[in-house]
Amino acid sequence: MNQHKKFHLKTFGCQMNVHDSEVLAGFLEGLGYQEVDDVKETDIVIMNTCAIRQKAEEKVVGMIGKLKKLKRENPSLIIGICGCMVQQEKTAEMIKSRFPYVDLIFGTHNLHRFSELLTEAQESRETILDIWPEGKEVVEGLPISRKDGIKAWVNITYGCNNFCSYCVVPYVRGREKSREIVNIMMEVEGLAKEGYKEVTLLGQNVNSYGKDLGQGVSFALLLEKMGNIQGLERIRYMTSHPRDFNRELIEVISRSQKVCEHFHLPIQSGSSKILDKMNRGYTREHYLKVVADIQKMIPNSSITTDFIVGFPGETEEDFLDTLEIVEKVRFDASFTFIYSVRKGTKAADMPNQIPEEVKKERLYRLNEIQNRISREIHEVLKGSIVNVLVEGFSRENDSYLTGRTRTNKLVNFTGNKEIVGKIIPVKITEAKTWSLDGEMVQETVRKR
Ligand code: 5AD
Ligand code: SF4
Question: What pTM does this model have?
Answer without folding.
Answer: 0.95
